[in-house]
Design goal:
single chain, 8-stranded mixed beta sheet, 6-stranded antiparallel beta sheet, 2 helices
Length: about 375
Amino acid sequence: MRLNKFILLVIAALTASCVERFIPETTGYEKVLFIECLITNDTAVRPVVHISRTAPVVSQAGGKLTYVPEKVSGASVRIECDDNNITYFPQSGAGNYLPDTVFKAEIGKSYKLIINVDNKIYESDFQKLNASPPIDSITCRHVLQKRSEDGLIIEGYRFYANSHSSEPGPSFYRWTLDATFRYQAPYLSTHIWTGRTTNAESNRLVRDCWKSKNIPGIYIANTRGLSENRIREAPLNFESQFGDELTIRYSLNVKQYNISESALDFWDNVTKLVNETGTLYETQPFRIEGNIRCASDPSAYVAGIFEVAGVSTLRIFVGRPSGFTIFPPECFLQQVGTRDFPWYRLPPLSFVTEQSPNVFMTANQACYDCQLRGGTLDKPPFWKEN
């Protein structure tokens, strides 16, 4: 086995947006089966079994990645409960397996993942689903952070999770995050260019938008070795001063998973692997051991994790920061109808602003229509302005 000579690309993909990819000097690798599945008591978290084979991050010629992990088809997948109920997960697309019926795990019960593929049987031990305690609070604090690509120091908000459990410790947590924010197109139009003439028209109905995004990264913490079963300010995501996110109002939605110790150790090892890019020649990459094994061939190595976790959720809202400057995407006005920018160069149905009689200015239409920056005019049902 030469697994210490490559990085599992599937694992790196989970955190690619928050780390710099490390390209090792060696091209040695082996195609290892990678299995990932999360089941919870939350019907909003759809259970999916992902199966793939890992690929090297460099080619045999020493160049950068030339192909992606292979999605594994043709597997037989099921989850068994300790009450003898069995749920089958037929294939739904390459490498993805979904339950054939409505599936919701129940608190207090234990579950086992069993996969038959390539004439080998892979399985986990029974994992008990423990309820997740409520999240006490999500807080944020003004911090400075160095941007990796150019070393620039930027300001922003760092968010933190606080939680505790009345159960005897220790507790093991993982958080997943998504955000929604309100922003506004900066310019107010007075007219619209039809392609032949200007008609009086405001863009007020397309100035205010909401946009949602998933936040990548691995966010974990535990109370192992602590005097009380309490998490204080576990660091979550950082939102910088650049962009639309913090211009008006920002909402962070946090899901807290009460995971097992083996799952915590798995994600901790993944974090170490992808974050220790500066010292990998001193600390060589290691196997990412999860809680899945090959029952039919103990010598066969399999990577991945089967998580069985209770879920609790908390959403918070924060307004525009006052302690540091926010820099939304830049917009520049340009006079239209001049020799350098005649009207015919302006696309029809473009918003323009009459700054003085017969002096019209315009800009990139995303500076007038917020939808062109990826948002929607529909206010989310959970949105709160105060």
